[in-house]
Write a structure and sequence with these properties.
By secondary structure, the protein is α/β, with parallel strands linked by helices. It is built from three helices and four strands. Strands 2-1-3-4 form a four-stranded parallel beta sheet, with helices on both faces. The N and C termini lie close together (9 Å).
Length: 122
């Protein structure tokens, strides 16, 4: 679900924000700052941030940059990043995960199952 189109009450809700951002984006923190401002205006308490960069690889095989504009798989984020995200949600006692990117219902289900909280896209 899209957070803008929903009737979710955010007052006092602990939120973790996350985003999948191209490696070509020079200032991803500005994206998080804007998300945080918007959520805090709605009454939410942002308790964590998680960034997945796309197009950054330690692999010696070429091709990562060529795939940057293709859709991600069923979980949106890499398996390792989903594990980190779930740990962050638990540690911060967040009740809501807000993803900057548009996500499919399947990606939402995967993230909700992994984190144990509601998932919305911004």
């Amino acid at each position: 679900m899209n957070l803008h189109a929903s009737s979710v009450k955010l007052t006092g809700v602990r939120v973790v924000v996350c985003a999948l951002v191209s490696a070509r984006v020079e200032a991803p923190e500005a994206l998080f700052d804007a998300m945080t401002r918007e959520l805090e205006r709605a009454g939410a308490v942002v308790v964590g941030r998680m960034l997945q960069r796309r197009g950054v690889s330690r692999s010696r095989r070429p091709g990562g940059a060529a795939k940057m504009d293709q859709p991600m798989g069923r979980g949106l984020f890499s398996d390792g990043k989903v594990i980190e995200l779930a740990a962050l949600v638990r540690a911060s006692e967040a009740a809501l995960l807000v993803v900057h990117n548009a996500i499919t219902s399947g990606q939402r289900r995967v993230l909700a199952a992994a984190t144990g909280c509601d998932v919305y896209s911004l």
